[in-house]
């Protein structure tokens, strides 16, 4: 598997970083002209016992730290997110790898059409591992935030090196508690359609590839307790359970070499997060 050209990757990430900065500057200038249109920004960090992405275990036996910054103005949003693995193991023997394993840059736009909120955007995934190609995804989301369980349907299309569709249905419900706290429950089910048998194969328990993956992939349930500390700062203890939704998904997650461990395809993990909004 060939790695993206390093200079190109750095250039793309820098452009997206500049886009976030430009949006920050634009929102501050625009807010002075339109008092009714307030830009919003957020700084957050999650400290978790494991990094699980769409069912795949991307860390093992180490704490991960995931900081993020986002700016939102008039429906436009720019976000930078990162992952730090405090005890990183490399799948490529002999390679020196940094603790900072991944950077994601997202640009999106949202607009409400009556009760339906529509979002479209682009995500660039930059990985600090010569064995992993960077990824580029377009996505479209339909949400009904005012309905019970606030259902959301999102379709992601990878267009760089792992051509595939990842379609996720999510529901969530918040329960108000005393002192401004809330219990936040969520669930997600996803379907994966691969266009490349080498990247996401249909694989059996013996590691034999039979074709391209096309099946239900992963499910996840979550619970978090949102605790307001100040007007701007919230702390969230959180726990997650990730599990395969089909036997093919179990084999893909456990046996295809896409997770850092083959011990299991189900994971319970958690930690604590904090967010500052202003």
Automatic annotation (TrEMBL):
Domain of life: Bacteria
Signal peptide segment: 1-34
Keyword vocabulary terms for this entry: Signal
Keyword presence, Signal: yes
Record-given protein name: MipA/OmpV family protein
Organism: Dissulfurirhabdus thermomarina
């Amino acid at each position: 598997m060939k790695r993206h050209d390093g200079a190109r990757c750095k250039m793309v990430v820098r452009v997206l970083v500049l886009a976030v900065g430009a949006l920050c500057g634009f929102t501050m200038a625009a807010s002075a002209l339109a008092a009714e249109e307030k830009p919003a920004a957020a700084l957050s960090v999650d400290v978790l016992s494991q990094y699980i992405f769409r069912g795949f275990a991307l860390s093992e036996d180490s704490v991960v730290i995931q900081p993020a910054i986002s700016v939102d103005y008039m429906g436009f949003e720019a976000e930078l997110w990162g992952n730090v693995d405090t005890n990183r193991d490399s799948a490529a023997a002999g390679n020196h790898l940094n603790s900072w394993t991944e950077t994601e840059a997202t640009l999106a736009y949202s607009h409400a059409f009556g009760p339906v909120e529509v979002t479209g955007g682009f995500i660039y995934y930059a990985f600090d591992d010569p064995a992993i190609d960077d990824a580029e995804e377009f996505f479209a989301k339909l949400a009904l935030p005012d309905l019970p369980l606030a259902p959301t349907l999102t379709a992601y299309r990878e267009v760089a090196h792992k051509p595939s569709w990842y379609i996720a249905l999510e529901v969530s419900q918040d329960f108000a508690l005393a002192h401004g706290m809330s219990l936040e429950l969520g669930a997600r089910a996803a379907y994966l359609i691969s266009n490349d048998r080498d990247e996401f194969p249909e694989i059996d328990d013996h590691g034999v590839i039979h074709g391209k993956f096309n099946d239900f992939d992963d499910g996840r349930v979550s619970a978090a307790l949102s605790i307001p500390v100040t007007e701007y700062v919230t702390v969230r203890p959180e726990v997650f359970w990730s599990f395969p939704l089909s036997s093919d998904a179990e084999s893909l997650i456990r046996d295809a070499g896409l997770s850092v461990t083959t011990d299991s395809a189900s994971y319970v993990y958690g930690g604590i997060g904090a967010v500052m909004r202003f």
